[in-house]
Design goal:
Blueprint: H1 19-22, H2 26-30, E1 32-33, H3 44-59, H4 64-82, E2 89-92, H5 95-105, E3 113-116, H6 127-132, E4 138-141, H7 151-157, E5 162-168, H8 180-190, E6 193-197, E7 216-220, E8 232-236, H9 238-241, E9 254-255, E10 270-271, H10 285-301, H11 303-323, E11 337-340, E12 346-347, E13 350-351, H12 354-365, E14 368-369, E15 371-373, E16 376-380, H13 387-404
Parallel strand pairs: 1-14, 3-4, 3-5, 5-6, 6-7
Antiparallel strand pairs: 2-8, 7-8, 9-10, 11-16, 12-13, 15-16
Helix pairs in contact: 3-10, 4-10, 7-8, 11-13
Length: 406
């Protein structure tokens, strides 16, 4: 019997972009928030979940087992969201934790190779693989153009010693969506593990791991899942679990007679048969309370509906920016991240292009939250955004161009 899902009080029939949904996010009453690709904003129900955790601590009203029910609940809710089973989901601290769990557990032999697009990935999906070279593996850099992950080039680079491919579902800049289906289908044919950094898509774009050819997927709750920093999930497809031996082990990850993390099992232990083998020690319980609330809300909205909503708004924003004559990045596959300017014309938090610097300045002055990444001006959309947000951006930039005489 499937466990019942937690209920958000007085928030039935929520719709993307609706006044009722927006009213749950204090930040959207104060700003035009277009930076989910940088970090989440907390909704009232998520904040209330954390408050419940703090109340329990304050009044000693729940023990560890009671707190960890939220861990179990959040694992189940995330599995439901992505079309997995709870035994395929490990609770982690963040994306780096998940990626490293797979990288260190994978049964590489000297001479095996891993494919990666170094020019398109966030550093947290680069350093784990640079570090694994000490095991004698070859790291193959598949070059793309303008920060793109070139799936055809990835497939062409595969050979009989390719064991793993690691890619972002959506690049953090320029914000392009990777053709996971094409890449994963080829990986399946060759028995290659496809590992996805999904932090830019989880909770915003629809995922169904029962159909998508993904073997591993790491994310945190600090962006589209609308939770806290320091809490995340790792999906590992069931048929790979027995082949991945964790480097680190605690009582949490050991297969024992009971789930009491303080009870010693036998010295002749085995890792848990499920993804819980990657879980270490005590959980971020505040993160679990927040995740239970945020995932409940996202499931009520539905990730198919969220994706349709954000992609429609993203198209409108790109069209409007193009009409203003601004250099809009044109993705091959649509995503919720919109970027302006040339990739790598600058770095983290700055641009060498004065147009991007000025656009960012005028948007900030008008209360529009965006970011500069790899020299590009970057904006990201989620369920709470609506057409008024798009209109605000276009009006601000149009007025700035008019005042400047451009």
């Amino acid at each position: 019997m499937t466990a019942s899902r937690p209920v958000l009080a007085n928030n039935s029939a929520l719709l993307c972009g609706s006044p009722e949904l927006r009213a749950l996010f204090p930040a959207v009453a104060e700003t035009t928030y277009l930076s989910i690709c940088d970090k989440m904003i907390l909704a009232d129900p998520i904040r209330q979940g954390v408050d419940r955790f703090l109340d329990h601590l304050t009044h000693a009203s729940t023990n560890r087992v009671g707190h960890e029910e939220k861990v179990t609940s959040s694992r189940r809710l995330f599995a439901e969201m992505v079309g997995a089973t709870p035994d395929e989901i490990a609770v982690t601290r963040n994306v780096s934790d998940g990626l490293n769990s797979v990288a260190t557990a994978f049964p590489f032999a000297e001479g095996d190779n891993v494919l990666l697009a170094l020019g398109a990935e966030h550093p947290n999906n680069i350093y784990p693989w640079l570090h694994q070279q000490r095991r004698g593996i070859e790291l193959r850099n598949v070059r793309g153009v303008a920060g793109r992950i070139d799936v055809d080039a990835m497939i062409a680079a595969m050979d009989s010693r390719t064991r793993l491919v690691s890619v972002a579902s959506v690049s953090f800049a320029p914000g392009e969506r990777t053709d996971i289906t094409a890449l994963g289908t080829e990986c399946r044919k060759r028995g290659i593990f496809l590992l996805v950094d999904g932090v830019q898509s989880a909770g915003i774009l629809h995922h169904d791991f029962s159909n998508e050819p993904i073997d591993g997927f790491a994310t945190s709750t600090s962006k589209g899942l609308l939770g806290l920093y320091g809490y995340g999930f790792l999906y590992v497809k069931r048929n790979w679990l027995d082949r991945l031996m964790p480097v680190h082990m605690s009582r949490t990850g050991a297969d024992a007679e009971n789930d009491d993390a303080s009870a010693m099992g036998t010295y002749d232990y085995r890792p848990r048969p499920d993804a819980g083998r990657f879980e270490l020690g005590s959980y971020n319980l505040a993160g679990a309370y927040a995740a239970e609330a945020s995932l409940t809300m996202l499931l009520e909205l539905g990730t198919r509906a969220i994706e349709a909503h954000v992609l429609e708004l993203a198209d409108e924003l790109r069209d409007g920016l193009n009409r203003l004559g601004l250099p809009v990045f044109a993705p091959r596959l649509p995503s919720h991240v919109i970027t302006l300017g040339e990739v790598d014309a600058g770095g983290h938090g700055y641009s060498a292009d004065p147009r991007m610097t000025r656009c960012h300045e005028v948007l900030t002055e008008a209360g529009v939250v965006s970011t500069l990444r790899r020299g590009q001006l970057r904006m990201g959309l989620h369920c709470y955004n609506n057409r008024s947000d798009i209109d605000t951006v276009l009006e601000v930039l149009q007025d700035a161009r008019r005042i400047a005489g451009h």
